[in-house]
Amino acid sequence: MPAGFPGLPSLNALRVFEVVARQLNFRLAAEELGVTQAAVAQQVRGLEASLQVRLFERLPRGVGLTDAGRSYAASIRSALGMIDEATRLLRPTPSQVTVSVTPSFASKWLIPRLGHFAEAHPDIDLRLLATDRLSHFHTDGVDIAVRYGQPPFGGGLNIERLMEQSIVAVASPGLLAERGKPETFAALQGYVALHDGHDFWPAFSAALFPGHPPATAKTVRFNQTSLAIDAALGGQGITLASLAFVKADIAAGRLVQVFAQCLRLDQAFYLVWPRRMHEPQALSAVRAWLRAQVAEN
């Protein structure tokens, strides 16, 4: 009996090829695969040599697919998807879903709601990966991510808008009672402006007090939105934050919305997850629950 698939290239090389074809960048492909850029380049060169076909065009920045490479990539992506699905069906695992979110999204929006999820879905083991680093679905074992920005977020991904970004200014009621509400640009200068990594203050103050120069108020900067919100809760100044992150604190009287003005941005929070032939039921349940939480609040 002849050996099966004698012309089949290395499966590892095909996996590397699929990632490079999707990222069109050796460095990004190496990061996703958790290997060196040199190892990725070596696998691609070896695959092209074994096939005797040029799959990529080397460009000044990244690479581009040749016509043959583009056709091959579509077929290989489909084939790897079938192998992945067959393996999942062969080795069923407990209903476990890993969600990648930023630390601020986790602490200020998601974690307070997790008790409701556990009650509604006791059969799903929900795991949070809270990091500012861009998580990779395959290498980090992430099933779905909440990402902030504007699509596209990469090839081979499903994208669904979760909620818009509406920025408001908040402070503790005690601080406002002590100093008075800043009705004018000059009064606002008397407050400490609490910044996070997004730096919304220039756009917000320009919309609030048009025609004035950039604010020169005292500032304290944090690398996490949640830390800036905590500082505002402690009466240390005024911060700008997503309304979704501070709505519960405003409702409970722990924070006060300083101005009626909201800064609406083009960026939003999106659900992002890999395209698959068949979506696991647990993942569908998590997505539906996240959408329901946004609709209720």
TrEMBL record:
InterPro entries: LysR-type_TF_proteobact-type, LysR_HTH_N, LysR_subst-bd, WH-like_DNA-bd_sf, WH_DNA-bd_sf. Keywords: DNA-binding, Transcription, Transcription regulation. Coiled coil: none annotated. Residues 9-66 form the HTH lysR-type domain. It holds the Pfam family HTH_1. Gene3D superfamilies: Periplasmic binding protein-like II (3.40.190.10), Winged helix-like DNA-binding domain superfamily/Winged helix DNA-binding domain (1.10.10.10). PROSITE patterns: HTH_LYSR. Belongs to the LysR transcriptional regulatory family. This is LysR substrate-binding domain-containing protein.
